[in-house]
Amino acid sequence: MNAVGQPLSRAEGRLKVSGRASYTADRRFSGAAHAVIVHSPIANGRILSIDTSAAENACALAVFTHLNLPRMNPTPKPWSHLRPHGQGHLPLQDDSIYYAGQPVALVVAATRDQAAHAGTLIQVEYEESPPIVFGRDTAKAAIDPPQFLWPVASAVGDAERGIAAGAVRIEQTYSIADRHHNQMEPHATTAMWDADGSLTLYETTQHLYGTRELISIVLGIPAEKITVICEYLGGGFGGKAYVWPHTLLASLAAKLLNRPVHLQLTRAQMYAMVGHQAATIQTIALGADKSGKLTGIRHDSISPSSMFDNYIEYAALSTRSLWSASGGIATNHKIVHVHRNTPTAMRSPHEALGHWALEGAMDELAYAAGIDPVELRLRNDTEIDPHSGRPFSTRAMRRCLIEGAARFGWEKRSPEPRSMREGGYLIGQGMASAIYTHWRWPAKARVTLDRDGSALVEIGTHELGTGTYTVLRQVAADALGVAPERVTVRLGDTRLPPSHASIGSATMANAGASVMLAAKAARDKAIELALTGRDAPFAGTKADDIYVGDGMLRLAQRNVGVTYAELLTRNGLPHLIGDGNYDPVPEAEGPKAVFSFSAVYAEVRVDPELGLVRLRRFVGAYDAGRIINPKTARSQAIGGIIWGVGQALLEQSETDPALGRFLNRNYSGYLVPSNADIPDLDVHFVGDFDADASPLGAKGLGELTAVSVAPAIANAVYHATGKRVRDLPITVEKVM
Amino acid sequence: MSETRRAELGEQRVAVALTVNGRACRLAVEPRTTLLDALREDLALTGTKKACDRGECGACTVHVEGRRILSCMTLAAMQEGKQITTIEGLEHDGQLHAVQAAFIEQDGFQCGFCTPGQIMSAVAVIEEAKAGWPSAATADLQRPISLANLSKAEIRERMSGNLCRCSCYPNIVAAVAEAATRS
Predict the structure, then answer these.
(1) Global pTM value
(2) Within an 8 Å CB–CB cutoff, is residue A428 touching chain B?
(3) Fewer Cβ in 10 A, N or C end of chain A?
(4) Do A190 and A68 have their domain in common?
(5) Could you report the per-residue pLDDT of A143-155, keeping only the tens digit for each?
């Protein structure tokens, strides 16, 4: 029986439920000192003076400020968050302050409590200037940023003429609050140097090699002298794919003090220096004929970035490819430089923001044209990517729409707003669709087939909750023809074959493909031995006649087989090693457009007097290609849906307009969904094997599932109340 | 040297005797050391996680005298003489606790970081239900709750002190329900 496609429980489950999975801050090193960052309360200005004497006198082993920390090499230009350089500004290099929460000192002591206490004794005098804060006023001064991912603007056809020609037109502004990742595990680093100048970093990262690359550049040490280790990550969501100030500071402090230095950010500091999802102000315009067929789409977005980097939230990206529009589609992005740290990718960057406007406007169009929202989308479905003109590799949007509607019971919905009630509550049902970018990235892996018939998979990828240990085991088991329990997976270490960042929902399709290739290479070596090795059992036959299963090689025509163990023993080999090198053509250069798709359906209950919105039911239908493990895939999907519920109803990082500082820097002020907020969720996979996406047939899933949850809920709120909320999150005052 | 100064330097320590996972432990901790830090730093029991360090997320949940408590919200010195159980103390003779097994079976976790706290809460939820304790989701306070009527709504309410950013909530509910029926 194939392991791929089976709902296997997590390979590392026992370690995780017993507290034995070792996260970065769980590792203990003798002689390690503890570091604490002291950060700026002001968002704009400079340091006039800094008095560290009381801290030094108290119990600090060392205090570092811009006055005594060695200079670092600048980050590469042009800045790109993909390389991965979280932000271009480096800590403790001069007296300038560009954002609230910027590190101004690093205190190192024997214990964390001592370091934290000493930090409170540091006196800093600032010259303060008013900060620029993102909002509707400052957005007026938005500028055209340089490209760092996709082109900033796009135009196919003549969108304006198309919109003007429409019998029905919608033009609205949609906005979303700033949000923070809030991984359960705070960012942490332990840095230690060997006598030969090599650096080992235990790091909370979802990009081992990017961390190594940036540390190499900024600290000026050869990459091969740096080892980065992360075997378990307590949630990433994009925010741990980049290098942030604390990692650089801990590394330098460890070198200067010649002892291991451990640093864990406080929850509050996670709001200041490790990225966040930028707010967006988006304008969307749709034109459609009487039948609801789109004649033109324009989608523009403005988002903030830091004073020193050009991060763009590509909110209008997916509008380029989701629906066809006969006249044309135009998109554009602008940014405003404000006094804050650099925003970064957060599940699901770009797409989960842009669909808010596009799929909200589609619902408005459905009502304006008098067409059912599902039917409207079926009429605008397309087999050709409007942006690139390429056919989609696979696009099961129709199945997502129809099967999702059937599971939800959409046909029982009464279309008029405020027409469905239950007791004193208003009931609303809404839906939305989504498209998600698929990435093809290179990855390497090694599979070692042991004489005892077990196998070891080695790959420098990451386990951040996505089930990597489990799914890679399944892939290798099938390629080798062994039971999954016989396969051990090692990951999370730069000494392993290099893989890509675990971002963009790309690990299954790409890292997974390299494991499949490595396992096949090991299997082929075994087949070669069976054909031509010592006492070759299948001499005279062809490799094509041999198949593997149950830990054996078998000859198809005859009922004979040989175990891997026998084969290796016979040839005096301790093991066979297979190398996998997956080096795909980047998606943008392929003949097909590869995307994942979904249609999601939400039912809400609204208290008309209090404006309280409760999610009652949710159905998600997803085309993410072939599903490797339905159990872990479903978990990713429910996680994505709930992530979207947070975006829809709860999450907002509020900025003080005068101080330029994020205010609600904890779980009490920044609300994330809790167990009682979430009803039963229905997850339905409709995808098929997609050879253009990956040799495994899998497309991206994790982030797709967080997209379009918010517009589905907002559309349901409109259906319940007749009130169209266009600003996230949907809090009570906007509903009442 | 003054007492204040000694305290600043962390030299002033208090002796604390705890029984952790059935083992008697004698610690000399700073007065300001939380139970969470004492478990993690002094006893190297790192299964208990520090996520918010201010009583908002539940990741540091342990049992004191059989009741769940946020170990970041109490000082080690306040628990003198108490019986503490952490996630490391749930397994017996290599056998997982029914709640641990149910979390694996129902995939009640993803990254696993909040999981020790979730499981310690879940074990306590089942004991609280057995003892008939009501919750905010209990409709009728005249009819004491029991394991048999520990509904999904009850589990959701009782498990809401434990945040999970991977958001495995439906699977956590399923795991607690499964473990409750086995108990």
Answers:
(1) 0.97
(2) no
(3) N
(4) yes
(5) 999 998 899 999 9
